[in-house]
Amino acid sequence: MMMAHASAPAAVRQGTARILVALLGLFSLYVVALDQGAMLSVVQGNLAYTQNFVHEAVHDARHAAGFPCH
Fold it and tell me: For 3-55, how does the pLDDT look when each residue is reduced to its tens digit (9 = 90+)?
C-alpha cells in the first residue's frame, strides 16, 4: 500500500513536467513562426512593431524551419 502512495507524487511531477515542456514548445513555436512584435509591445508599445527585435533575432530560424516572413 505504501508503494502506491509513494509513486503518485512522481507521476504527478512527470505529468506536470510534460505539460510545461509542451507549453514551452508552443511558446517557442509562436516566437519563431508568428511573432511580429506583439510579445514586446507590452513593454515597448508601438515601437516594438516598427523595430521588430524578436523577428530579427529569429529571422534565420524562421527560414530554416520553412516559415515565410517576407
Answer: 555 566 888 889 999 999 999 999 999 988 888 888 889 899 999 889 888 88
Residue 3 covered by a domain: no
| C-beta neighbour count of 51 within 10 angstroms | 13
The reported pTM is 0.68
Q: Which three cell numbers stand for residue 13?
A: 511531477
Does 14 fall in a domain?
no
User: How far, in Å, CA of 54 to CA of 39, rounded?
Assistant: 8
Task: Judge contact between 48 and 40, C-beta under 8 A.
Answer: yes
Containing structural domain, residue 45: 23-70
What are the helix (H) ranges across the chain? 2-33, 41-44, 47-51, 53-57, 59-65
